[in-house]
Each structure stands twice: as structure tokens, then as C-alpha cells.
């Protein structure tokens, strides 16, 4: 029978299924076999030959036929998992059933009445294919049978793994196979790298696609702050019921971290052959990020036993999380970190050696995976920060942030990048590492500078704040918190970076900006705190910043004398109406961008994006810690009055703006972006919403931490002016030389304790991650389009 004939038969069976009003008996094998008998279908064929409208029609008109189709397809997978699919025909049946289930499952999830179907037991069916186990296993829900069959099939010799058979007659028994000997790739906990076999890679990819589809039930539940709803599919698959959990977790992690898109070391090689490994890596990284979920949203404490094998019972119930949290060998950390850095750097290499390597598209998934590694395995986080290897993660993140800043469809990428840097900046070592000179010249649309990685970070942040799109404003707090966190450790800022920081202060301290939104003054507090940290702890070596502060001294004087009478407030707000632009972009001396760089561009019209929930405010996102003399961190209690005066994020806001705070502060309120936009517009029209008052301005103005800078200006400005008059100087280098050798020892106020705001997990960020991650998975799976045009509830799909 030719392939067109068999496709016709398959199509005919689909039509019969939709038109038969009478239930087809489960025993009618001649009918059901038409769905999986064809030897030439692809997953794309199945999607084309089974249209959405027809699946929905069967679901509504003849539900028992849809139920039987699902049950029969799962039964075939269970039988294959038991027999080990010795023949080609059996392997084909498994693949066809896998494709059919991947096609149908989303339509089962979108209908509330069907959602329980896979978790119910099929009456009288027993465990498909096993009669003698009836009493014991007879009651397994269909979902469990399906998940266990997929797990078995992922370690099926000659189908998804290499056979270890000794001779032609020996058979590998699927029930007794030790899958730990069949791990897919060398790396964590496994030394041998099996030979590449593209057929195995393709078969694994098909099964993982079905697994991801099973897990995607999460997309059909609306986002809520009740984060205790665990995904039952993930919970079961990652439990001790799955005997392959450890080898599968290891296989997925190793396949991702060992992947080298350069074409296995040969440049331009990817142009010659299709890379089946890449599709497998994409599915593997997506499975990892959606399975690694917190138990019930409770922040956990990682157990750290001496080895991964011990203490199976300890730690999180989710075995993937459990295994991840217990990786502890330095060489394993090194393998994972080097692998992720290589993949994250890949799109950058593309820019200066076009086509030399294959350009990968899954950097967002890699960033989520990196985040989860740091979150679930604190020792990994410390390993990352132990050497300058962390910079191999930092540079690609800064590249993505800079590149995506004008593109509203990539606002999620901006958030995950900033969250990772916020997490890293909570550790002293990160600030110290930033002092390494930056010499890698990745073409970026930023001013050319000579300096360190700290300069790169500041220049990119300045670019995001001054030329990014409006939707990034909620991230300004995070960006400046990162700058404050690293500031006490920055040995020497370049003139370019110093000028950028002062330009931000200048922009944020205009009266109209300060008076137009209740929280805007926080940005000024952050910048002043960063300046104070550098002056108090790194004065030697930072003559560029000191010089920039002296040159822009009027900004500090204006802040100290900020008028707060009602007339001035009104005048400032009127000025705002004339120039609605957020930040003056002109006063920063814009310099020539790096050679070979491309400007950041908005999304192409028609680009799809998924909506995100709002992130919690920075005070919910972080927890203050004080650095003590010996460098250890002590958590600062929220009510400590000594820090309230410093630059408290909540007390400062005053009482009049409870309304404007409620949206951001209350973690239990989740808005999609379109709702936030509506709220913003309605608030703009109702004047009762929030208005600055004299008392409000005074409540925070008196707390501006200006003493250190005012003292510095008081001491140094007369000296610098004297030099200029005496020597008739207009030359910067002489003044810098003077400042370099100057000292303020004994002249400045007593150094304040260093405050670090460390990221802390909470229900709000957990929900943000879930929404973002599934949005990425939705948009990245377009061939076949697994979830396209189904009734997804976790987020909205928007066209740019």
C-alpha cells in the first residue's frame, strides 16, 4: 500500500470517528488500528489530517469515541513499553500513537469537564496488556499508565537507546533493564558518551514532545496567586513511582549541557547536515524547566548530603528538584556551567562570525534553567561566583538585555535577565568579579569604552533605562538595586560609566519626574546610595566618578533645595504635560556605538507574544542584609528604625498613596498586561487617584542621604577651583591626577554599614516564572503547533 493510500485510510478513519454517532467498541481492532498502522506518517501529517474542529466535534458529539481513542492509544504505548518494540512495525505504531496523543491532549485540557478523564480509571480495562496483575494494578489512572509507558520507552534498546545485547539471540528484558546504564550522554554522574544515533534522537524527541504536552495542562488553568496547585502530571512523573527518574533527569541535563552547536567542533559544518540533536536539546531543556517546580510554592532549604545516592527520602518530593539540589561535585558544576555559558554565548558569536556556527534559539529556556540551578542548588551559585567564569554568563545576559530593550514582545526576556543579575548581585563575589577588565568585543549597540565588566553593566543599564520601551519601567528599581548591591566593591569606574550614572541621577531628580509617580523618588535614593558606597569604600581608584560628581554638583544642590510648596509642585507637573517623554535623552553625551553592532529594534508587526503577570515591588522581591566587618551578611529586620531613615522603600511613600501602592504591593493581585494598561489609563484620567502634597515631598526629602556627597564637594570643589585658577587649567587629566592622589580620610562622615538587598522567592515571582516559562514553551513549539488556537487560560496571546 503506497503512502498516499495509507494517509487516505488514516483520514477516512478520522472522518468516520467524527461522523459515527454510535460508540465504536473498544474491541473493534480493525477500526482502531487504522489510526496507527500507517508506516509513513510524520507528526506534521497527523496535525494536518486531524483538524482542531473535528477533535472538538468528537469531544462534544461522541465523547465515548474520543475516550476510546485515547485509551486505545495509551494501551498501545503500554504494550510497546512491555515488549520493547522488537519489530520496525511496532516502533512505527508507538510513534503514531505518540503523535495522535500529542495532537489530542490539548483539546482534552481546554474542556473543564474532560480534565479529570486521564486521572480516572477506565472501568474493566485493567492495566492495559496485563491480565495477571489485575487486582493489584487494575486501578491505575490512564495518566499514570501513559507517563510510565513514556518513561520506559525513553530507555528502550534499539528504539531510543543503544542496545547492550551480547549476541543476536539474547533479548533485553524491558522489565529488568537498569536504565542507569543507558544514560543518553556523558556528564553529570555518567562517564561514557554513547555514539550519536539520529534515529534515537528523533524518537526521543517525539516522546519528549508528548511528555511536554502532558505537562501542559498548566496552560489551561488561569494564573492565580494560589501557588500550591502542583501540576499532577509533573508530580507523578517526578515521583518514586517512575523508576527511570534519575537516569532520565541525568540524560536531559547532560544532553543540554554537552551540546555544541558548532557542529561538533567543525565550523560551518551545520550547513552540511541537519542537526537532530538540536531538536532533542530544545525538548530536553523545556522538559527540565517545567518539571523543576517548587513543592507547593514553599521556599525550601536544600539538603547537602555527601553524595547524591544517599538519603533518597530527604529533600523535596519532586525527584528532579531533589537530584538537582544534590549535585555537588566540582567537575559536575564545571560541566554544567561551561555548557550553559557556551550555549548562551552562541548567538553572540553569530554576530561577529556570521554562519560559522548554527544559531540556537532557545536562550530563554537556558536562562530559566540557569535560574533554577542557582535557586535549587546554592552550592552551584557559590561555584559560579567563585571564579571569573560568572562573567561568561553575565556578558551574554547583558547582550540580550541590550538587544531586546526596544522590543515589547521580548519583555519577558528582559525580566529573566534582570532577575538573574539581581540574584547574583546579592553575593559579594559578584561585585568583586565585575572588576575584571572587559576585553571581549562583542558588537553591541552601546558607546565604546575602555574599562571593566562593571562599566559594561552600567553602560547597558543606562541604555535600557534611557532608550528602552515604556513597559520596562517596573524594572528600573531592580536595575538600580543591582547597581547598589555591587557598588561597594567597584574599584575603578571608567569616565563613560561615571557620566552615565550622573546622567541617570540628573534625569531622575527633575522635579516633574519626582512628583509624577509616588515611587519615583526611590530611584534617586538608590543612586545616592550607590555613590555613597563608592565614595566611602572605594574612593581611591574612583577619581573618574568623583570628577563627574564635581562637574555635576548643581544636581546635588538642586536636590537638597528641591522646592515642595504647592505652587512649585503644580508648576513641575505642568511642565511634565508639555514633555511627556520619560527621561531627557539629549543631555547624555551620546557617543558612537561599537563597530559592527546593530541597533535594538522593535518587534516585527505580527509577532506573537504572551502576556505576563505583574512582578512584586522591589521591597517584596528583596530582603535587606547588612554586611558586617568580617564580610558575613546579617538579615535586617523590617522594623529597624536606623534603616528606615536610610532609604526605606515603604515608609517613605507616605499615607496619601495607599491606592497607587495597592496594585504593586499586594502580592495576591495579578494583572495581565492589558489589565495593567487599562488601570494605568483609568488612573490617569481620574485626578483623585494620587497627587503629590507638600507633606509627602517633605516626608522623603529630609531622608535623602546627601551628607557624604555634600561633604566631599565642600572639601574638593575649592581645591579643584584653585588648581584651575593657579595653573589656568582646563585640562581634565591634570584634575584627575590631583583627585587620584587626593584623600578624604577623616573628612567624611563615619561610613554607613553596607546594605545589600538579596532576592527572595515569594508567591508573586513563582507565579511570574510559571507564566513566563509556559509562554516561552507555547511560542517556541510551532512545528507542529501543539497549542496554537486552543483555549489557553494561563496567559493571553497577543499580536504585536
TrEMBL record:
Entry-linked Pfam families: Hid1 (PF12722)
InterPro entries given in the database record: Hid-1/Ecm30
Biased composition annotated in UniProt, kind: Polar residues: 584-594, 647-661
Organism: Perca fluviatilis
Region of interest: Disordered: 573-605, 624-674
GO annotation, cellular component aspect: Golgi medial cisterna; Golgi trans cisterna; membrane
Stated name of the protein: HID1 domain-containing protein
Transmembrane regions: none
Amino acid at each position: 500500500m503506497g503512502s498516499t493510500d495509507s494517509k487516505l485510510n488514516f483520514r477516512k478513519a478520522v472522518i468516520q470517528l467524527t461522523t459515527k454517532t454510535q460508540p465504536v467498541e473498544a474491541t473493534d481492532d480493525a477500526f482502531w488500528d487504522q489510526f496507527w498502522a500507517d508506516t509513513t506518517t510524520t507528526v506534521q501529517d497527523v496535525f494536518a489530517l486531524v483538524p482542531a474542529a473535528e477533535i472538538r466535534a468528537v469531544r462534544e458529539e461522541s465523547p465515548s469515541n474520543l475516550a476510546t481513542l485515547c485509551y486505545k492509544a495509551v494501551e498501545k504505548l503500554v504494550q510497546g513499553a512491555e515488549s520493547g518494540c522488537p519489530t520496525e512495525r511496532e516502533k512505527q505504531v508507538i510513534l503514531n500513537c505518540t503523535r495522535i496523543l500529542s495532537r489530542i491532549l490539548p483539546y482534552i485540557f481546554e474542556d473543564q469537564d474532560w480534565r479529570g478523564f486521564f486521572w480516572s480509571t477506565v472501568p474493566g480495562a485493567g492495566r492495559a496488556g496485563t491480565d495477571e496483575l489485575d487486582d493489584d494494578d487494575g486501578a491505575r489512572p490512564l495518566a499514570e499508565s501513559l507517563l510510565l509507558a513514556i518513561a520506559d520507552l525513553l530507555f528502550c534498546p534499539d528504539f531510543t537507546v543503544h542496545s547492550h545485547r551480547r549476541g543476536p539471540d539474547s533479548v533485553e528484558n524491558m522489565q529488568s533493564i537498569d536504565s542507569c546504564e543507558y544514560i543518553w550522554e556523558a556528564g553529570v554522574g555518567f562517564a561514557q558518551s554513547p555514539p550519536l544515533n539520529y534515529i534515537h534522537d528523533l524518537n526521543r524527541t517525539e516522546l519528549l514532545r508528548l511528555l511536554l504536552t502532558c505537562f501542559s495542562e498548566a496552560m489551561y488553568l488561569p494564573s492565580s496567586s494560589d501557588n500550591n496547585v502542583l501540576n499532577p502530571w509533573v508530580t507523578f512523573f517526578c515521583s518514586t513511582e517512575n523508576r527511570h527518574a534519575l537516569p532520565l533527569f541525568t540524560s536531559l541535563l547532560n544532553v543540554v549541557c554537552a551540546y555544541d552547536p558548532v557542529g561538533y567542533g567543525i565550523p560551518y559544518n551545520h550547513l552540511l547536515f541537519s542537526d537532530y540533536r538540536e531538536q532533542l536539546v530544545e525538548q530536553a531543556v523545556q522538559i527540565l524547566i517545567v518539571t523543576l517546580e517548587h513543592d507547593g510554592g514553599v521556599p525550601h532549604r536544600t539538603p547537602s548530603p555527601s553524595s547524591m545516592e544517599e538519603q533518597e527520602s530527604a529533600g523535596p518530593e519532586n525527584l528532579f528538584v531533589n537530584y538537582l539540589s544534590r549535585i555537588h561535585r566540582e567537575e559536575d558544576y564545571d560541566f554544567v556551567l561551561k555548557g550553559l555559558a557556551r550555549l548562551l554565548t552562541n548567538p553572540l558569536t553569530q554576530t561577529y562570525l556570521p554562519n560559522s556556527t548554527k544559531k540556537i534559539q532557545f536562550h530563554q529556556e537556558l536562562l530559566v534553567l540557569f535560574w533554577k540551578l542557582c535557586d535549587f542548588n546554592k552550592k552551584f551559585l557559590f561555584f559560579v561566583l567563585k571564579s571569573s567564569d560568572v562573567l561568561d554568563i553575565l556578558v551574554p545576559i547583558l547582550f540580550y538585555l541590550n538587544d531586546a530593550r526596544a522590543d515589547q514582545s521580548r519583555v519577558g526576556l528582559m525580566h529573566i535577565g534582570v532577575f538573574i543579575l539581581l540574584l547574583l548581585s546579592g553575593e559579594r563575589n559578584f561585585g568583586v568579579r565585575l572588576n575584571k577588565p572587559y576585553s571581549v568585543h562583542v558588537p553591541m549597540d552601546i558607546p565604546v569604552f575602555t574599562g571593566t565588566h562593571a562599566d559594561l553593566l552600567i553602560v547597558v543599564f543606562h541604555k535600557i533605562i534611557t532608550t528602552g520601551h515604556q513597559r520596562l519601567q517596573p524594572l528600573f528599581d531592580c536595575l538600580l538595586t543591582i547597581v547598589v548591591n555591587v557598588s561597594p566593591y567597584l574599584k575603578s569606574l571608567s569616565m563613560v560609566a561615571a557620566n552615565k550614572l550622573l546622567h541617570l541621577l540628573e534625569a531622575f531628580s527633575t522635579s516633574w519626574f519626582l512628583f509624577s509617580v509616588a515611587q519615583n523618588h526611590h530611584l534617586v535614593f538608590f543612586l545616592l546610595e550607590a555613590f555613597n558606597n563608592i565614595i566611602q569604600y572605594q574612593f581611591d581608584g574612583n577619581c573618574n566618578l568623583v570628577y563627574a560628581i564635581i562637574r555635576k554638583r548643581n544636581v546635588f544642590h538642586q536636590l537638597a533645595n528641591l522646592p515642595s510648596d504647592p505652587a512649585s509642585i503644580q508648576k513641575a507637573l505642568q511642565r511634565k504635560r508639555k514633555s511627556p517623554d520619560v527621561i531627557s535623552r539629549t543631555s547624555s553625551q551620546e557617543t558612537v556605538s561599537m563597530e559592527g553592532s546593530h541597533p535594538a529594534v522593535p518587534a516585527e508587526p505580527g509577532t506573537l507574544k504572551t502576556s505576563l503577570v505583574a512582578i512584586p515591588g522591589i521591597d517584596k522581591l528583596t530582603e535587606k542584609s547588612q554586611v558586617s566587618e568580617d564580610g558575613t551578611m546579617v538579615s535586617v529586620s523590617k522594623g529597624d528604625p536606623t534603616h528606615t531613615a536610610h532609604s526605606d522603600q515603604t515608609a517613605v511613600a507616605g499615607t496619601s498613596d495607599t491606592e497607587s501602592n495597592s496594585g504593586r504591593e499586594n502580592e495576591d493581585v495579578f494583572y495581565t498586561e492589558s489589565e495593567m494598561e487599562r488601570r494605568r489609563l483609568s488612573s490617569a484620567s481620574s485626578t483623585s487617584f494620587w497627587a503629590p502634597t507638600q507633606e509627602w515631598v517633605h516626608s522623603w526629602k529630609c531622608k535623602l542621604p546627601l551628607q557624604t556627597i555634600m561633604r566631599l564637594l565642600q572639601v574638593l570643589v575649592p581645591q579643584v577651583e584653585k588648581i584651575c585658577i593657579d595653573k589656568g587649567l582646563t585640562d581634565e587629566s591634570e584634575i584627575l591626577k590631583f583627585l587620584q592622589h587626593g584623600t578624604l580620610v577623616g573628612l567624611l562622615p563615619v561610613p554607613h554599614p553596607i546594605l545589600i538587598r538579596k532576592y527572595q522567592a515569594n508567591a508573586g515571582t513563582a507565579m511570574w516564572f510559571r507564566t513566563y516559562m509556559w509562554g516561552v514553551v507555547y511560542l517556541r513549539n510551532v512545528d507542529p503547533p501543539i497549542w496554537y488556537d486552543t483555549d489557553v487560560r494561563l496567559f493571553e496571546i497577543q499580536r504585536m
